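Module 6 notes. Inverse folding takes a fixed backbone as the condition and produces residue identities as the prediction. Think of it as a translation problem where the source language is geometry and the target language is the twenty amino acids. Below is one complete input and output pair. Work through it position by position during the lab.
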């Protein structure tokens, strides 16, 4: 037998959680051809000695947002340099399809900074556009509820009519038929925030017919965390849905840190009633999203583009400022960090807390939102380190970055998770005493099981998506001030047997 590539003297963590075993791995035509104790270098065109490093399936990022960034930067450096070869995207309700005249203009504006033409309409044509760029990371997009809803009725905050719901079901059905593993909700965002339980259950029923999964950025990740999970679970039982996945599980806000034991009990109770509940988590305690989420009440019903337009008006700006001051104590701004903005005056302050940038942080926030609500993102330090460590140690928690595939030196400042999340997840799990094979399983076999992917295993016949790493040095080194620092300890990444990262 001859192959393209022979990887010798590796300790294999095969993704299933089985104990490490030392062997050689032969690949050819993008597949794993043989796994044997010893194979001669003559068996393949190229031979690489891994000298006792760990060889694992290419990591699966269980939660990413590279739908567009991967087309803008197909080398996907931030991800492939962490060993990631597959990403579940289309998360938090936002997928780049289905596109119709109702939502195309809005999404073109949202994605404008990537410089990618939205030359598709459905999931299949999106994947064709992505594949044409030969990305280093395979995108596996869910169908996003916010995009789906807007495809039928735009971004206005209102309830669906029966005919609109039927159209959404049809578009969802098409996406699932085209291979989407499921539907993602982003119930904190416009227009998903207006979805009723009837709407959620009706869409879940379509997913259930395809035996798919529903994921959610919950309506509340803090004050109403348990109620938000229960809301989704009730809809799932009504719809006959069997698998529910909580995106970036957290207990946001100090007051809510004590809810974790109750959350675990709820997860177990739901499992016993027949609803499998899984989650993903990034290993940081600062979340990141649009700065606009800081605005309270009615402001939440506006899209970022709509908000920006409204804030052009001086009176509205003053109203927003008063509402913001009433809603947030001044200490809030000591934990709210500017991550990215298109407002050039403030770009030098990216990575700093709003309280460090201006004497009146609320006023600064309104200024940023009025000038660039669409591209201004912020990090919110509301999470407990202890809870984060507990969540990542749960056997039903997959590693996820919540980040983007980015080029090595892009002008965008990301959250450090884009360059570091999975490598850091691995480091933290090993430091907690997890076996290498257990930690690798949470980053490969487990997300593959959750999303029913045909990868995530080192097995003869499977695709040769592989990564080799040094367990002693592997770590995500990116920080908010140096967010583009590459991960350490990842030696090589191969996509379909082709070297995409490493020496
Ligand atoms: Zn989210």
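Target side of the pair, the amino acids:
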């Amino acid at each position: 037998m001859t192959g393209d590539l022979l990887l010798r003297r590796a300790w294999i963590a095969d993704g299933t959680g089985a104990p490490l075993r030392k062997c050689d791995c032969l690949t050819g035509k993008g597949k794993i051809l043989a796994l044997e104790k010893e194979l001669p270098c003559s068996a393949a065109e190229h031979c690489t000695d891994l000298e006792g490093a760990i060889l694992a399936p290419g990591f699966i990022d269980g939660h990413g947002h590279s739908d567009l960034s991967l087309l803008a930067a197909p080398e996907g450096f931030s991800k492939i340099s962490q060993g990631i070869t597959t990403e579940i995207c289309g998360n938090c309700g936002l997928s780049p399809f289905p596109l119709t005249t109702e939502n195309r203009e809005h999404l073109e504006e949202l994605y404008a900074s990537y410089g990618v033409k939205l030359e598709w309409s459905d999931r299949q044509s999106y994947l064709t556009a992505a594949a044409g760029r030969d990305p280093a990371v395979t995108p596996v997009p869910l169908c996003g509820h916010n995009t789906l809803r807007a495809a039928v009725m735009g971004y206005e905050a209102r309830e669906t009519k029966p005919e609109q719901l039927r159209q959404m079901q049809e578009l969802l059905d098409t996406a699932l038929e085209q291979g989407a593993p499921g539907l993602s909700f982003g119930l904190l965002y416009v227009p998903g925030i207006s979805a009723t339980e009837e709407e959620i259950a009706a869409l879940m029923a379509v997913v259930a017919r395809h035996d798919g999964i529903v994921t959610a950025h919950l309506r509340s990740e803090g004050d109403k965390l348990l109620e938000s999970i229960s809301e989704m679970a009730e809809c799932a039982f009504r719809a006959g849905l069997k698998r529910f996945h909580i995106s970036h599980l957290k207990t946001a806000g100090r007051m809510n840190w004590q809810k974790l034991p109750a959350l675990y009990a709820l997860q177990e109770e739901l499992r016993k009633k027949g609803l499998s509940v899984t989650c993903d988590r990034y290993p940081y305690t600062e979340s990141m999203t649009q700065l606009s989420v800081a605005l309270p009440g009615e402001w939440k019903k506006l899209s970022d583009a709509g908000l920006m337009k409204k804030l052009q008006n001086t009176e509205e700006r003053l109203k927003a400022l008063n509402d913001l001051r009433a809603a947030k104590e001044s200490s809030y701004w000591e934990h709210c960090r500017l991550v990215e903005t298109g407002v050039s005056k403030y770009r030098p302050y990216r990575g700093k807390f709003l309280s460090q940038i201006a004497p009146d942080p609320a006023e600064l926030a309104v200024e940023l939102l009025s000038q660039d609500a669409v591209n201004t993102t912020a990090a919110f330090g509301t999470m407990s380190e202890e809870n984060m460590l507990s969540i990542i140690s749960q056997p039903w928690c997959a590693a996820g970055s919540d980040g983007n595939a980015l080029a090595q030196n892009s002008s965008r400042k990301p959250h450090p998770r884009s360059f570091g999340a999975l490598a850091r997840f691995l480091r933290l799990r090993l430091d907690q005493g997890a076996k290498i094979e257990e930690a690798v399983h949470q980053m490969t076999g487990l997300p593959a099981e959750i999303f029913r992917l045909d990868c995530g295993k080192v097995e003869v016949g499977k695709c040769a998506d592989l990564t080799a790493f040094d367990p002693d040095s592997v770590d995500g080194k990116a920080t908010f001030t140096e967010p583009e620092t590459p991960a350490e300890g990842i030696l090589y990444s191969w996509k379909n047997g082709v070297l995409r990262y490493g020496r």
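Reference fact for the lab report: The longest helix spans residues 162-177.
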